[in-house]
Amino acid sequence: MPEALINPQLDSNLNNFSYLDGIVYPNKPELEEFIKNHQENVPLIQYACNVAISVFQGSAQLSLEVEYDPESADIMLYLTARREQYSDDNIEDLDDKIERIRRMYRSAGFVDTIDFLVMTDYQQPVQI
Description:
four-stranded mixed β-sheet, globular, 3 helices
């Protein structure tokens, strides 16, 4: 596991994510609560965020968002990539980059979890 991409001092305080320039947090209290309750996913989340910043290099907004599924009562954390505009070419590029990020964290020894996913919803960037 690439240790340089992981902050070993991480806890549920989002200030510990401050080194991740390029990630927005629309609802910090929800995110802090999710991290506090899912400490086992913190290294994956950090690694995926770092990889996403490197892969996208500013070409998409990257947002960490907690989502609730009212039907199943599941709580998920999504690292969502969004762009201002979508066309056939940049949708394919966006999808390719997301899959590349997933392959990179899998090859680093992380597995996909039911609690965390890198994705896009093809929406406009969130306003913070």
